[in-house]
């Protein structure tokens, strides 16, 4: 301790102390953020992983590499987790039909068992978000009012306040959310596919994700009680429609009044 006390006035002591503080802070932050989302490949059997690897090599390795390490045609899948596979393959976005601005949903090419086996294999490569548990998909337990608030703050700028979708830059778009399964909505929030940001459990808790799903399913079930949706673009589109239609009626009425009788 005496030797250490003598060295505390060394010119590099402050630098060493600062580096130590940064390392401790970074380590604690990494541990805190990974607790909620880092899930090992628990719940899958060795047989699932083995069958999943066979499916992966036959259908995915061309783009993602033989060991899922990624290539110029596809990103690495190490650490993306089972939720990413379940979302991308379960919505038909993967395998991609062709390279483009973003993968679009299309008919699913694998059955549920095969998707689960693929997810098991990818989950075995590294920790990542897991497929959500059933309790977080049960909308009877959710709060739609709170979910609506979270959706408007975090999602409506891309997906539209009515979740009708919207255009993004460079040919990309935020899809409409009507008809999307609860599980896939949850997974999209957890993994952030395409241009979507990641909402891990530190940003939006599993209970809050359930509230968002509850809100989306509620507005989906309500349809459009006010009449024609006009693309669900909000009051601007509705006002423009009324202004255009009203102006057309006035012009037509004016022409009728000023026309000469035959």
Molecular structure report:
It is a single chain. This protein has helices spanning 2-7, 13-37, 46-59, 61-64, 81-90, 112-125, 144-154, 156-159, 182-191, 206-222, 235-258; strands spanning 166-167, 173-174. Residues 35-41 have low confidence and may be disordered. Strand 1 and strand 2 (173-174) form a beta hairpin. It has 262 residues and is mainly alpha-helical. A two-stranded antiparallel sheet has the order 1-2. Helix 5 packs antiparallel against helix 6 (112-125), helix 5 packs across helix 9 and helix 9 packs across helix 10 (206-222).
What distinguishing features does this structure have?
262 residues, mainly alpha, two-stranded antiparallel sheet, 11 helices, respiratory chain, repeat
């Amino acid at each position: 301790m005496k030797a250490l006390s003598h060295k505390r006035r060394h010119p590099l002591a402050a630098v060493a102390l600062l580096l130590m503080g940064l390392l401790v802070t970074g380590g604690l932050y990494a541990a805190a953020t990974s607790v909620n989302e880092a899930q090992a490949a628990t719940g899958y059997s060795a047989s699932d992983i083995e069958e999943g690897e066979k499916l992966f090599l036959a259908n995915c390795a061309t783009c993602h590499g033989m060991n899922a390490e990624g290539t110029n045609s596809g990103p690495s899948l190490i650490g993306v987790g089972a939720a990413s596979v379940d979302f991308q393959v379960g919505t038909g976005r993967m395998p991609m039909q062709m390279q483009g601005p973003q993968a679009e949903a299309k008919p699913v090419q694998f059955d549920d068992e095969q998707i689960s086996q693929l997810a098991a294999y990818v989950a075995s490569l590294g920790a990542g978000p897991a497929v959500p548990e059933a309790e977080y998909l049960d909308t009877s337990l959710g709060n739609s009012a709170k979910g609506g608030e979270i959706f408007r703050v975090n999602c409506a700028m891309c997906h539209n306040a009515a979740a009708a979708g919207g255009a993004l830059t460079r040919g990309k778009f935020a899809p409409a959310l009507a008809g999307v399964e609860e599980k896939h909505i949850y997974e999209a929030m957890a993994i952030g596919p395409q241009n979507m940001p990641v909402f891990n459990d530190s940003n939006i808790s599993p209970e809050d994700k359930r509230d968002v799903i509850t809100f989306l399913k509620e507005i989906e079930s309500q349809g459009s009680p006010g009449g024609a949706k006009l693309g669900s673009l909000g009051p601007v589109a509705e006002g423009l429609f009324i202004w255009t239609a009203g102006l057309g009626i006035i012009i037509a009425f004016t022409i009728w009044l000023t026309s000469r009788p035959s």
